[in-house]
Design brief:
Order of helices and strands: EHEEHEHEEEEEEEHHHH
Largest sheet: 7 strands, mixed
Distance between the termini: 17 Å
Number of domains: 1
CATH topology: Rossmann fold
CATH class: Alpha Beta
CATH architecture: 3-Layer(aba) Sandwich
Protein name: ThuA-like domain-containing protein
Number of helices: 7
Helix content: 10-25%
Number of strands: 11
Radius of gyration: 18 Å
CATH superfamily: Class I glutamine amidotransferase (GATase) domain
């Protein structure tokens, strides 16, 4: 099983999308047998002591919830994450609408598949959510928080979407969100995993993009990566609206998941599939052994519920 760092790009804040709002995801990964360190950024200016050394601390995967508005990663942290992938570490990133999570731009090819607000682009191509005018594009409307959205697949079904819980054998529903971000597959090694369909305009957009088969500058296989269009696929509030959300969330929630929670179980297979798939990344992480994981646990035990 994997050693996973589940990390947000913000410091502790009671009224934001901090790590405590991803407790159900944390529990699901732990129930699957993985060791999970769940934390926010350390308080204070400067480089985060964990993220800036993630390539040296004995973790196999980084699940990065990019919930900031652009300043969530320092240069040293972005460089360490890039080295982590070069050494074979698997990475998942999850952002949201407009500029939310735009610190991901600094992560090489993984940053390139995440696209953020660009005033030079015709807004009609990405301005989807008209109900919350203060949120600009890209903002694809897949449904209300607390509702399901159908997963659309063209061609063969990727192994990440396989499940024995549906008649089709694939994951058919993701948690919905009123304003998802934009991920694209226009760099070498990138593939669209699945698409959604806007409930506002009917246009299709990418729910997730995967990166596989890349090579580091020295020729070694790089770690696999998954880029999600929104962290709301994994937030407690989107799995169970009885969980709290920050006060700035103004959209009325839906009730589909509460009314029919069984359809969420195949999506939890998606979570488990990601962890298994990222663990098959290439490279040599022999220098990052279990002994080195202990300082991370000591560092965050009293801070972030890890």
């Amino acid at each position: 099983m994997s050693r996973i760092l589940l990390q947000t790009t913000i410091t502790d804040h009671p009224d934001d999308w901090g790590i405590e709002r991803f407790s159900l995801l944390t529990a699901e990964l732990r129930a699957a047998g993985h060791t999970v360190i769940a934390r926010n950024r350390a308080d204070g200016a400067g480089d985060d002591p964990v993220l800036s050394h993630v390539d040296q601390l004995g973790v196999d995967q980084l699940w990065l919830m990019a919930v900031d508005v652009g300043t969530g990663l320092t240069v040293a942290e972005a460089d360490a994450i890039t080295r982590f992938r070069h050494h074979g570490g698997g990475v998942l990133t999850a952002r949201d609408h407009e500029q939310l999570g735009s610190c991901l731009r600094h992560l090489g090819s993984l940053g390139a598949v995440n696209r953020f607000h660009d005033a030079s682009i015709d807004p009609e191509s990405m301005l989807d959510d008209r109900d919350t005018p203060e949120i600009s594009w890209p903002n694809f409307h897949s449904g209300s928080n607390g509702d399901y959205q159908p997963v659309l697949v063209d061609g063969p079904v990727h192994e990440l979407l396989r499940t024995p819980r549906t008649a089709s054998g694939r994951i058919e529903w993701f948690p919905a969100h009123p304003h998802e971000g934009l991920v694209v597959a226009d760099v070498p090694g990138a593939t669209v995993l699945a698409q959604g369909r806007s409930t506002a305009t009917g246009r299709r957009f990418n729910l997730a993009v995967v990166l596989d088969g890349e090579r580091a500058p020295d020729g070694r296989p790089m770690g696999r990566a998954v880029a999600e269009s929104t962290f709301h696929h994994f937030a407690d509030y989107n799995w169970d609206v009885s969980c709290s959300a920050p006060s700035f969330v103004s959209e009325p929630p839906g009730s589909q998941i509460a009314d029919d929670p069984a359809r969420l179980e195949p999506f939890k297979d998606y979570v488990r599939n990601i962890a298994a798939w990222l663990d098959q990344s290439g490279g040599d992480r022999s220098v990052a052994n279990a002994r080195l994981l202990r300082p991370i646990k000591t560092m965050v035990r009293t801070r972030n519920g890890g």
